[in-house]
Design brief:
Elements lengths: L1 H5 L6 E8 L2 E15 L7 E9 L8 E5 L6 H16 L1
């Protein structure tokens, strides 16, 4: 993922996440793709990955993985943020 993050040829897509911790309508940039997870002796699992970065440089870039190949990068980010909202309260 760090190679993708540092690749100047990578196409980043601007997204607005409706709820971002204590903020609303947070702008982020994402790149996404597919890969497979493999562990010896286990079946191969297809993964949808999403890299997110902050154009304002207020949070570190992060990689998220999802087994739902139909999930959009926006949906994956929103689920991630909502998860932390529930754990925070």
């Amino acid at each position: 993922m760090s190679a993708v993050l540092d690749d100047p040829a990578n196409s980043w897509i601007a997204l607005t996440v409706p709820v971002w911790y204590d903020e609303h309508d947070r702008a982020v940039e994402v790149a996404s793709g597919t890969t497979v997870w493999y562990h010896a002796g286990m079946p191969t699992v297809p993964l949808h990955w999403v890299l997110s970065r902050d154009p304002l440089k207020q949070f570190e870039s992060q990689a998220l993985l999802c087994t739902d190949q139909e999930a959009t990068p926006s949906f994956i980010l929103e689920c991630f943020v909502q998860r932390w909202q529930v754990e925070y309260f």
